[in-house]
Every structure is written in structure tokens, then in C-alpha cells.
Amino acid sequence: MKHLIFAAGLALAATTAPAGDNGMTTKASALGVTETVDAMVAAMEGAGITVFARVDHGAGAQSIGEDIGASQLLIFGSPKVGTPAIKDDPVAGLFLPLKVLVYQDAMGATKVVYEDPAAMLGRLGGVSEDAAYLQPMAGALARFTDAASN
């Protein structure tokens, strides 16, 4: 049993790069870009989270004769969680709602990337590093990206 738990931990570590100096977290998905975003949308809608937009960067590039591969940006959130951040610092509205980028890398692998809310909003003067909304934001990002990348 210990070996199974250890192997599962290694597999997760191999597919997730925690937020580093730049505050970004990258995860691998076994699904394609569209399927990964579809899975996140389903998980979010099932949890009552609002999906505000799905931006297809790949299609945008194709519309001008360029090819960047599959790439979609998902914009989502909950006014209940985000509004307190904007009340603390109106500039938080520049960073919210939350965003997740799903793209196909040069090797054809699907990557899921998001910025840690504490790193993202911590640059603002009015947002405290221990603000109560940072943990729910980080938890939602981790849960929804895990649901789509595992």
C-alpha cells in the first residue's frame, strides 16, 4: 500500500509544477485542449460557478492565417468570492474573474496553467496576504484544474 501511495505522489508531482517565483501553476492533461476545457466547464457549472467566457486563441490565430495550436482561455468566477477583493482594492477587477489557460505545447501535450491568486492579487496595495477570499480562489483553481487534468 505504501508503494501505491508513493507512486501516486510521484505521478502527481510529475504532472504538476507548483507556483514558483512567477506564481504560475502548470498541470498536464491527458485530454485534448477542447476536452480539458469542457471538463472544467462541467465541473464549474456543477458547482454553481459562473463561466463568463471561453476565448479560443487558436481559432483567433487561424482567422489571420496563423497557427499557434489549440489554445483556450477560460474566464470564470463567483461574485460572492471576487467582490470582497474588488472592495479591498478596485484594481483587483483587472485580475478578476479568474482565468485558466489550456494549450497544446510544442510536443503536442495539453497544459493547464493558472496564476496563484495570492501572487496575482498580492501585488495590489489593498489586498492583504491573509485575505479570507484568497484560499477559496486558490482552492477552486486547484479543484477545477485537477478535475480536468486527472
Automatic annotation (TrEMBL):
<keyword id="KW-0732">Signal</keyword>
<feature type="signal peptide">
    <location>
        <begin position="1"/>
        <end position="19"/>
    </location>
</feature>
<feature type="domain" description="DUF302">
    <location>
        <begin position="55"/>
        <end position="117"/>
    </location>
</feature>
<dbReference type="InterPro" id="IPR035923">
    <property type="entry name" value="TT1751-like_sf"/>
</dbReference>
<dbReference type="InterPro" id="IPR005180">
    <property type="entry name" value="DUF302"/>
</dbReference>
<protein>
    <recommendedName>
        <fullName>DUF302 domain-containing protein</fullName>
    </recommendedName>
</protein>
<dbReference type="Pfam" id="PF03625">
    <property type="entry name" value="DUF302"/>
</dbReference>
